[in-house]
Amino acid sequence: MPQAKILIVEDETAIRDMLSFTLQAAEFEVIEASNAEQGWALLQERRPDLLILDWMLPGVSGVSLAKRIRQNDQTRSLPLILLTARGEESDQVQGFEAGADDYVIKPFSPRALVARVKALLRRKDPEGALHVDVLERGELKLDLSSHRFWAKSEEVKLGPTEFRLIHFFMSHPNRVYSRTQLLDQVWGDSVIVEERTVDVHIRRLRRLLEPVNCEDYIQTIRGAGYRFSNPY
């Protein structure tokens, strides 16, 4: 099963190292940043499952980053734990109002923090969807752990973008997505590409599916965008 991905944004190296060691020992994948700018970039690039964010960061504060996260459509639902030495009630209120899901005061127990992380991930993913590594839709099958894809039991070799695209479609069937929405979801809103790039990769994906007659899973909805649906 793939590990849940945790992003730590903490400027104190000793605390960041301790958090990373503790979370990796609990079998999480860990990404690290030392300031808000690095943290924001990694949010876009790596799409973590949960964020542990220090309040007092150099430059842009953790609270400011939390507000930015909650204002962005792609990150607003990200589980967020705010880590701080500020324990006054007014500080906690400010942290929660900024968008924190949980608030941990330094010094803290690493084991207790891991328990909070697991609780937040369960709340986000009560049915265990985070740990689904094989998706099957009709005659298509995608294995995230091995990065392989099959159509009618025939393995189809996909490029990285086509793999991300079919992964998104198979995770969100029967709904129409505009080119702009697909750009945000598959390429990320920090990447600047033209909308016609979506059409190019849709055509590539369909060509790869043509030999096994599965290209009709990806349907063009005139004037609206694209939909993934079982055509049979």
The domain count comes to: 2
**Helix-and-strand structural type:** alpha/beta
**What is the CATH topology assignment of the largest domain?**
Rossmann fold
Computed over alpha carbons, the radius of gyration is 20 Å
Average pLDDT rating: 86
Largest sheet: 5 strands, parallel
> What's the CATH architecture name of the largest domain?
3-Layer(aba) Sandwich
Q: Strand order, main sheet: write it out.
A: 2-1-3-4-5
Could you state the CATH homologous superfamily of the largest domain? Response regulator
Counted beta strands: 12
Shape: elongated
The CATH class name of the largest domain reads Alpha Beta
How much of the polypeptide forms β-strand, as a percent range? 15-25%
Kindly report the oligomeric state of this protein: single chain
Distance between the termini: 31 Å
- Helix-strand pattern: EHEHEHEHEHEEEEHEHHEE
Low-confidence segments, given as residue ranges, are 126-130
DSSP helical segment count? 8
Helical fraction equals 40-55%
Spell out the key features of this protein.
232 residues, alpha/beta, Rossmann fold, Arc Repressor Mutant, subunit A, 2 domains, five-stranded parallel beta sheet, four-stranded antiparallel beta sheet, 8 helices, 21% strand
